């Protein structure tokens, strides 16, 4: 990928931006070093976990460095089971291969190996932290926590395919998402007489056949870099997390609970998680797909999922969340996420023929399913307790819940914007007026004046319908702000309350009390997924940017500093733990909001019409202690490149903002005035006027290269 240089205008005050741009112009741009993917689809382990060796193991690092074989031997029943733990250095996903340099057996059978996989050392044990069989039933249940091998006497490569060596004996689950694998010489009693816990095995090499998207530098069509290396690194960590879940849908590798789908078989999809939750759920795409568009612009995986779910729309307009349970898992919020994700697809990739093909599907969700669940007295969506519907976190809540309604407002407004750009004015008008009405109903019905934030909205669990529980949730409050339900003052009040009530060292909790599910510590549970919307609300609410950066640093700093490192977790529980123990997916694309947050707010690039034909460029330059940021966003007509750099002149702060957008596109730039009383602002060298006291001036420009400069 060629980096096109910006035209650097002469600017008559001292700035260091030329040096940072020069770095980016180098043959190997400086951001390349942050990329996390393995260099090829054959991934080698990085080491043996210290102190993991048990029993008679000779040359333990042999299999790592291909310097002679590692030999596991056991000659007597009384001997310890020879064991090693291999570390791949970071979370990986795919099919393991072992190169054997032969084995020696006793008369009791070939020596058996057992393999237990784990994403973390904490949950590494004699059974995998999770295997496909753990979620399977009947014939689909092949193993009980370990994969088995019967090691032959010959030199050969064993590949961890899904299946059994003979009938139901010596079985393997196949694909795994993991960082560590524990290998030991032992046979399951049920595998006798094929394998034995005696003998000796030579392992001369080991590798992983990477199954997912390989995000190496030249696959990046978008990138990000800023003066804080942690933030920069987390952007690439987020991309890697989504890469791990971007994979081919195969019945033998996905979620087994009725999720296999002939339509999806063999296609690229975006799974929720790499280890577990290997089914594409549409709510997760609300974040994961944005990461995908902004990094590799690989829209095919998202489109395959959205189209498949559209084809399974129910007659009443409801759309299933995923293929699981043969497309019947009842979630109440996910049809709205299908709408949001469909609009995202068109906005980010410009595929208006997708919009045309599925317009009727979208209309049926917004004008069929949700109106049929609207309470005519309150004007709000009601999820009645006996519907049995859940949501992204299977929360025990019903009634006029703020989250469902705020998300409905968001979906209506966003779809209305798309309808407008596609010349579907009637739909646009109907949806935006309904969005306004529901927003007003939320304000009059669900706002808790005593704390200045929305109630969760329904009764306490077990409470009577029509009552309201004294509890508040992150989801509804954050999305209400983003959907424009609240004015700036109310938004700021909500965000202040939320920060104060729920802040943890590992992020902000998703509830301010655990009353809905006592014992589950909701007030100490953090979802990076829903936190994305809260942090975005902080970036869009004046005066709240520094709290956005603070929350990012707590949340992503925590995950990056804890095992397995790099990848982003499904959920965080009390004391910063994996919220569902070993079962927790530690590589979950929905937690990668850091990518759209940095690209969409710190660079400030947002689409305003399909394919960024019109865009908005509103970088947040203050509040995070950053001195510069730069990057690119792919669009169908070419890239949008943004670079900004703050300076410190004698007369006060300075800012240079450079942009390059495709010819034929146009948009609005927000130029911050940095609190300067009467700033001198130039656009391409010509002065432009700011009114005194303005914190931001907006300027419309057409495509091409432009430079804004601000000084005292
Ligand atoms: C350990 O295994 C090796 C073969 O790899 C064997 O030569 C040696 O005798 C074994 N040691 C013990 C104490 O069993
Ligand atoms: C193990 O080795 C013996 C020779 O010691 C051989 O006769 C026998 O067939 C082998 N058993 C298996 C199960 O491979
Ligand atoms: C699975 O293994 C565990 C020990 O790890 C054991 O307690 C349990 O009985 C096993 N279940 C089956 C079905 O074999
Ligand atoms: C396996 O290969 C090794 C060298 O890589 C060799 O020393 C050994 O004899 C071979 N064993 C068999 C059974 O072919
Ligand atoms: C699953 O099936 C596909 C297609 O048949 C095959 O390519 C793949 O290797 C299988 N995966 C495993 C883990 O066996
Ligand atoms: C899934 O549902 C469809 C439509 O309801 C039905 O035709 C099909 O047989 C079901 N498949 C399975 C495996 O139950
Ligand atoms: C756009 O979407 C349509 C309908 O879903 C699909 O057939 C087409 O391949 C997509 N085009 C691109 C360039 O992805
Ligand atoms: C509609 O909301 C009103 C006011 O909260 C409530 O009394 C009524 O039971 C709701 N209707 C239904 C059908 O849930
Ligand atoms: C923050 O929380 C404390 C204790 O819960 C409370 O006393 C204080 O008034 C709160 N401040 C704000 C700004 O909400
Ligand atoms: C970067 O993050 C690490 C831990 O994740 C932390 O120790 C370090 O202080 C951070 N650096 C900066 C500049 O914030
Ligand atoms: C969090 O850690 C503290 C200190 O170890 C412990 O007392 C507390 O029980 C933990 N909280 C939960 C919910 O596990
Ligand atoms: C800038 O563009 C926006 C979006 O097209 C438009 O609403 C606004 O009126 C324009 N402002 C000026 C000053 O032209």
TrEMBL record:
Gene3D superfamilies, sorted: 1.50.10.10, Galactose-binding domain-like, Maltose phosphorylase, domain 3
Alpha-L-rhamnosidase concanavalin-like domain mapped to chain residues: 83-183
Domain (Alpha-L-rhamnosidase C-terminal): residue spans on this chain: 604-673
Signal as UniProt keyword: yes
A GO molecular-function annotation: catalytic activity
Residues in the signal sequence: 1-24
Alpha-L-rhamnosidase six-hairpin glycosidase domain boundaries: 269-490
Record-linked InterPro entries: 6-hairpin_glycosidase_sf, 6hp_glycosidase-like_sf, Bac_rhamnosid6H, Bac_rhamnosid_C, Rhamnosid_concanavalin
Keyword field: Signal
GO biological process: carbohydrate metabolic process
Protein name: GH78 alpha-L-rhamnosidase
């Amino acid at each position: 990928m060629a980096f096109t240089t910006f035209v650097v205008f002469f600017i008559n005050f001292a700035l260091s931006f030329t040096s940072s741009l020069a770095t980016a112009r180098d043959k190997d741009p400086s951001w390349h070093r942050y990329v996390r993917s393995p260099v090829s689809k054959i991934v080698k382990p990085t080491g043996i976990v210290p102190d993991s060796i048990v029993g008679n193991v000779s040359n333990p690092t042999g299999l790592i460095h291909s310097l002679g074989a590692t030999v596991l031997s056991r000659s007597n029943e009384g001997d310890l089971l020879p064991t090693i733990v291999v570390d791949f250095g970071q979370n990986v996903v795919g099919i393991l291969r072992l190169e054997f340099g032969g084995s020696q057996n006793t008369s009791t059978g070939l020596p058996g190996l057992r393999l237990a996989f784990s994403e973390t050392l904490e949950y590494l044990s004699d059974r995998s932290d999770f295997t496909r069989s753990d979620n399977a039933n009947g014939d689909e249940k092949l193993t009980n926590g370990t994969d088995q091998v019967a090691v032959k006497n010959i030199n050969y490569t064993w590949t961890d395919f899904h299946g059994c060596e003979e009938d139901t004996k010596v079985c393997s689950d196949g694909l795994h998402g993991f960082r560590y694998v524990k290998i030991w010489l032992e046979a399951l009693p049920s595998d006798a007489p094929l394998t034995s816990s005696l003998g000796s095995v030579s392992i001369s090499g080991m590798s992983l056949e990477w199954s997912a998207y390989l995000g190496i530098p030249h696959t990046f069509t978008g990138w990000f870099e800023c003066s804080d290396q942690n933030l920069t690194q987390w952007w690439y960590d987020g991309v890697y997390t989504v890469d791990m879940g971007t994979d081919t849908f195969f019945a033998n590798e996905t979620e087994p609970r009725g999720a296999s789908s002939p339509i999806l078989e063999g296609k690229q999809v975006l799974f929720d998680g790499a280890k577990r939750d290997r089914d594409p759920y549409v709510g997760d795409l609300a974040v994961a797909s944005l990461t995908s568009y902004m990094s590799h612009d690989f829209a095919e995986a998202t489109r395959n999922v959205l189209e498949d779910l559209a084809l399974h729309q129910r007659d009443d307009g409801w759309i299933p969340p995923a293929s699981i349970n043969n497309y019947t898992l009842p979630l109440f919020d996910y049809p709205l996420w299908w709408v949001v994700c469909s609009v995202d697809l068109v906005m980010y990739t410009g595929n208006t023929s997708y919009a045309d093909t599925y317009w009727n599907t979208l209309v049926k969700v917004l004008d069929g399913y949700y109106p049929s669940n609207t309470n005519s007295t309150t004007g709000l969506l009601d999820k009645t307790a006996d519907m049995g519907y859940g949501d992204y976190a299977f929360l025990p809540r019903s009634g006029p819940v703020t989250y469902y309604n705020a998300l409905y407002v968001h979906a209506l407004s966003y779809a209305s914007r798309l309808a407008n750009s596609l010349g579907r004015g009637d739909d646009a008008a109907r949806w935006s007026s309904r969005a306004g009405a529901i927003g007003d109903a939320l304000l009059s019905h669900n706002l808790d004046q005593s704390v200045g934030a929305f109630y969760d909205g329904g009764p306490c669990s077990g409470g009577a319908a029509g009552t309201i529980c004294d509890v508040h949730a992150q989801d509804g409050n954050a999305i209400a702000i983003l959907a424009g339900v609240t004015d700036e003052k109310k938004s700021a009040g909500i965000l202040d309350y939320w920060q104060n009530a729920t802040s943890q060292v590992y992020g902000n909790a998703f509830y301010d009390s655990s009353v809905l599910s006592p014992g589950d510590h909701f007030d100490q549970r953090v979802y990076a997924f829903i936190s994305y919307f809260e942090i975005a609300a902080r970036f869009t609410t004046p005066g709240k940017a520094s709290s956005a950066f603070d929350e990012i640093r707590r949340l992503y700093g925590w995950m990056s500093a804890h095992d397995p490192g790099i990848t982003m977790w499904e959920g965080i529980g009390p004391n910063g733990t994996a919220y569902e123990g070993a079962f927790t997916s530690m590589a979950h694309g929905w937690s990668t909001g850091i990518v759209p947050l940095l690209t969409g707010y710190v660079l400030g690039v947002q689409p305003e019409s399909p394919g960024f034909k019109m865009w908005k460029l509103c970088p947040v330059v203050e509040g995070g202690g950053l001195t510069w940021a730069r990057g690119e966003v792919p669009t169908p007509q070419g890239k949008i490149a943004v670079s900004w750099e703050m300076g410190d002149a004698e007369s006060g702060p300075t800012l240079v903002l450079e942009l390059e957008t495709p010819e034929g596109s146009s948009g609005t730039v927000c130029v911050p005035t940095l609190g300067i009383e009467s700033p001198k602002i130039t656009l391409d060298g010509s002065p432009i006027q700011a009114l005194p006291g303005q914190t931001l001036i907006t300027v419309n420009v057409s495509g091409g290269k432009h430079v804004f400069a601000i000084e005292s």
